[in-house]
Amino acid sequence: MTMITKRVEVFRRYWPLLEQLVMKDIKLKYRRSFLGYLWSILNPLMIMGIMMLIFSNMFRFDIDNYPVYLIIGQTIYNFVSESTNQAMWSITGNAALMKKTYVPKYIFTLSRITSSFVNMVFALGAMIIVFFVCRVKFTAFMLFIPVILAQVYLFALGLGLFLAQGTVFFRDIQYIYSACLTAWMYATPIFYPISQLPERLAWLIKHVNPLYSYITQFRVIVLEGAFPDGRLILYGSAMSLLMLGAGSWVFMKTQDKFILYI
Question: Where are the domains of the chain?
Fold first, then answer.
């Protein structure tokens, strides 16, 4: 209990630094951009338009309200992809600062995941625009959406911590993870319905791919106006906590060796 109390106290002490790092990341992303933060809304809309043109016309998936279906999957996948890619270099990219003064090393990874999460919250503006255009019915079930976003955030944080510590010792992780992200994108029903897949492959995605759980929970609420299946919520929550626990444990076990490799 004493150890937990100490860690909470250290986190509170460095909270202002975390805020500054998050603000710096957000400002750097839109620095020298004429439209600035508007790109957080325009970019997902442009990507959605291109993907709609390709997949709805060339492959003709029979999906009701396809723009909404697409932007939900796209927004969640993009957050996980962007945040974990940023987190991967959070330790090596701050080597100079860590050599000069003591800072809890996880702060750098946490700031990258959090700044990407803030960008995703901005991107929800694009999603809301699509909801209005496509006449999505707003229901009380949408109050559960923050819980889904929290699941995704914790999952990305755990994965980000794992990648950050791994990259310190093995820089080739960037190439391996890039290939994994491509495979992960196609193994997630972002732009196609899972019903198009063979039964065995669909079963595998439902039970192994956490993104399926998060995206499906979101889609059920928005497209069906219903509450997600309890098993989906339980699976998504369990995977988030499992990934967070595993990533944190590995990070804490290896962080004392970072200074020898950065």
Answer: 21-261
